[in-house]
Amino acid sequence: MSANRSWAEPYRIKMVEPIRMTTRSHRERAIAEAGYNTFLLRSDDVYIDLLTDSGTSAMSDRQWAGLMQGDEAYAGSANYYHFEEAVRTFYGFRHVIPTHQGRGAEHLLSNICIKSGDVVPGNMYFTTTKIHQELAGGRFIDVIIDEAHDPESEHPFKGNVDGEKLKRVINDYGKDRVAYLSLELTVNMAGGQPVSLQNVRETCALCHEHGIRVFLDATRCVENAYFIKEREPGCAGMSIPEIVRAICDEADGCTMSAKKDSLVNIGGFLAFNDAELADAARNLVVIYEGLHTYGGLAGRDLEAMAIGIQESMEYDHIRARIGQVRYLGDRLLKAGIPIVRPVGGHGIFLNAATLLSHLPRERFPAQALAAALYVDSGVRAMERGTVSAGRNSETGENQYPNLELVRLTIPRRVYTQAHMDVVAESVIAVADHRDRVAGLQFSYEPKHLRFFQARFATIQSHGIFRNDDCERPTTTEPAAEIVR
Q: Does some domain include residue 466?
């Protein structure tokens, strides 16, 4: 078949969930009540929800059937053993401890492996990973390649570890103060950018040469494997499961939020090859999550996760998943919208610093852009910039990362190409009126992970759009206001 022929999603729809568009005035009130934080919006007020791909996937008929086979025994559920077999088969790690989601696994790993004063090098921070490392007494050090901090770089593997940076960390602190290397696949905060298989091998070899363990954040390992197959010389003939195993075989263990690649609404795991570490994790999981054979999950959730792990490895699925993200990215690039390039795995990342260049970083342009996009069309996105970066623990000043982004995160198997068209048109409409988007300031700031619960106020009193006389969005508006 010609490469220019159209392709379609490798599934058909047998159940639908109605969504509804609200009026612009309704959205203006809703975002103001939410303190201009899209995390605090009610889902009923959202038209197309691109806040996250975490736990928002549509499960398959096989997964729903699996729910009916839930063995809800407190200890030794049959579903646990199905789940354990799936992890061992596809990821290869010998010891598997279920957790309620990825941050549960991060918490256990940090408590087991980090001592006060340790450093944890990694290929760019992720918010929950970093806070768990810090609460355990460690300090994250970024060792990703410089291209990852440049949204316009076309480097095919911007998630790669810079070997020279890693060597400096080892030399400066000594191998005994390096708790482990945290290797994320793909790198979320860099725009969903992958790591090459060659870099995984070289990085793990360097760490193991110094007796330093490597733990993967395998949350989006399957998406990373697709990019390796597509972009890395010598890997085109490998299957997705073969690439996933080739990655994991180099590492000592992993944390996993199964709410992403593994296509479930709740669940995660921590996996090791080392029996002593696994035993320590099983002791802690009983305290924080539940017995080591359920980890805070129902048996039916474990069954859905086992099936989802297998489905995630199917080439047609991952090709369509990446293809939908790429379709949206291509539309925005053709319209001249500044986004992180190349298009990554799980979403499109708008370059808010460029798009809203009239706003200084202390006025949180990414947060403002996400709010403006919601007002325009009811599309919910999220900030990935200064607000997410938090404050310097020593000075208390805001940290200003190189990347000031808004993430349009695509749930798996949920939206159609027409939804992507609506999103693209809304981003373009906001860009056409970018000079009218107002800056924000904190009205409430929590101590940890502030992007989840912070509230903001506009610098002026006219809402997120100054002198709000923008054209109405292209999406059809309802005839009347929605009343709760």
A: no
